[in-house]
Amino acid sequence: MKKIPAVTPTIPDVNIKVTFPKECDIGVSYCRMLLHDTLLNDDGFRTGISDTPLCSCGVEKESVEHVLLRCQKYTEARQLMFDN
After folding, report:
1. pLDDT lower than 50: segments of the chain
2. Collapsing DSSP states into helix, strand and coil, what is residue 54?
3. In this structure, are residues 62 and 55 in contact, taking their beta carbons and an 8 Å threshold?
4. Per-domain boundaries in the chain
5. Cα 37–Cα 34–Cα 26 angle in degrees, nearest 5
6. Closest by alpha carbon to 19, among 8, 38, 36, 34?
7. For 83, phi and psi rounded to 5 degrees?
8. Whole-angstrom Cα distance, residue 34 to residue 64?
């Protein structure tokens, strides 16, 4: 029988520090955004659970970036988020 050598995976040093929130639900949401595994239409369309990648505002794809930074439906909430 041929012996298979043990392989130790190595993680490259990318010099990026990621801090996760202490609250579990916020941490899970953060990870889902990083992995493009949200319930937003853009991710849902890619995985086959949404009929369209477009946001209901009709301007562009409903991605994390669109919702957090540009969607007109969330202007007031965005302003509160950035002000606090």
Report:
1. none
2. strand
3. yes
4. 24-83
5. 85
6. 34
7. -80, -20
8. 9
